[in-house]
Design brief:
single chain, mainly alpha, 13 helices, globular
């Protein structure tokens, strides 16, 4: 449509900037998103490839942050950092050696017996009168129909392999032991260095505000991570004692071993409680061949872990971390994928460190806000603002 003769030409309406005073952003380069995508894919591939090196390094750095506050407290009373590092590493080595001597034989025996336990459980469940009898009958009927149709029977082939669970444990043990030794040695050098890395990080900053922000960030990581892992460790030990006593009441063999298993598995969010309950139920069922007995033991295990997760930990630890539950689950799944079981253990502490760093760096505060829970950000809405702003 053309304007009438003598009328002013049509012009596009002028839309004022709803945020006056803010600088206009330059247009984004069209290759920004593809480059970031390639970088993320390369980063994930590097994390998977360098897992034998990065996993012990990450563990040592996390322990260094946890031990920084006790090291400073000991330094104030005249104990130097190298002596503290020597004492910490000696305690860790002693605990590892003691655990290896006490737990090596029962754990290896139990892991080697898992296929037998599963076979016995399946046979009992599919036996006449068992809860899975209908499935066994259906499988037998299917085999009978296939045999009556004259289908060619497969040729049985016997597979001989030495790659059993016990053999896998023996083959993996040297690598795991090497990672543990490397992590302990690195922790010794980190603790004995004192605050050298923090001082170097502060010295590398140009502005005074950046220096102060760096110190605050390091102190926040040390405080929150130390408080979190210290409280969680004490809670998990108490949970292990409670579960061990409950399994003794149920009459399960080696209840102390189940309690130790519960202590370590509870460091893994979401998955640890489920794995522990399944293992406990399997042990109880194979020992008694009573389905209700196995379900009762597994239910007791899961009930105690649920009480700990829903009441004890929120009461003692509180909501100081303010982490997004969905991001916690995704981080556990991601680290389990790239770093196996130990990745699930270090997933939450690593997410805590990432959240603190993102909150401290102005350019990353949006990511830190995303990693927080629903109560981490409460917008202030004025009365004269439209309802569309109340998000």
């Amino acid at each position: 449509m053309t304007p009438a003769d003598g009328a002013a030409p049509l012009e596009a309406p002028v839309v004022e900037d709803p945020r006056p005073g803010l600088p206009t952003r330059p247009p984004r380069h069209p290759l920004t998103v593809p480059i970031w995508g390639l970088f993320l894919m390369a980063l994930v591939a590097a994390l998977v490839w360098a897992a034998p090196f990065l996993l012990p390094v990450t563990t040592a750095v996390l322990f260094y942050f946890i031990l920084s506050a006790p090291r400073r407290a000991l330094a104030r009373i005249g104990i130097p950092a190298p002596v503290t590092a020597l004492g910490v590493t000696a305690l860790l080595i002693g605990a590892i050696v003691f655990a290896g001597i006490v737990l090596a034989d029962p754990v290896t025996k139990f892991v080697a017996d898992i296929p037998t336990l599963l076979e016995r459980s399946l046979s009992s469940l599919t036996a006449p009168g068992g809860p899975l009898e209908a499935f066994a009958v259906a499988a037998d009927a299917t085999e009978e129909v296939v045999a009556q149709t004259g289908a060619q029977q497969p040729v049985p082939v016997e597979m001989v392999s030495d790659s059993g669970i016990a053999y896998s444990l023996v083959s993996v043990a040297p690598g795991v032991l090497g990672q543990i030794v490397f992590s302990v040695c690195l922790l010794f050098f980190l603790v004995s260095s004192g605050d050298m890395f923090t001082q170097k990080a502060v010295q590398s900053m140009d502005r005074f505000e950046d220096k102060r922000r760096t110190v605050r960030t390091v102190r926040a990581i040390e405080e929150r991570l130390g408080n979190y892992l210290g409280a969680i460790t004490l809670i998990n030990v108490g949970l292990g004692v409670a579960i061990g006593a409950a399994m003794w009441w149920w009459g399960l063999p080696s209840p102390w071993l189940i309690g130790i298993m519960a202590t370590f598995l509870n460091f893994i969010p979401f998955v640890g409680a489920v794995i522990g309950a399944l293992v406990t139920g399997l042990v109880a069922f194979t020992g008694s061949m009573d389905l209700w007995f196995g379900l009762g033991a597994a239910g007791t295990y899961y009930l105690l872990t649920s009480i700990e997760g829903q009441f004890v930990t929120p009461t003692l630890v509180g909501r100081r971390l303010s982490l997004n539950v969905t991001m916690v689950f995704l981080s556990v799944a991601f680290f389990a994928w790239i770093w196996s079981v130990m990745g699930m253990v270090v997933a939450v502490p690593t997410l805590v460190v990432l959240k603190i760093v993102c909150d401290a760096v102005p350019r990353l505060r949006k990511l830190g806000l995303f990693l927080g829970d629903a109560e981490g950000f409460i917008p202030v809405i004025k009365d004269d603002e439209p309802d569309a702003a109340k998000v």
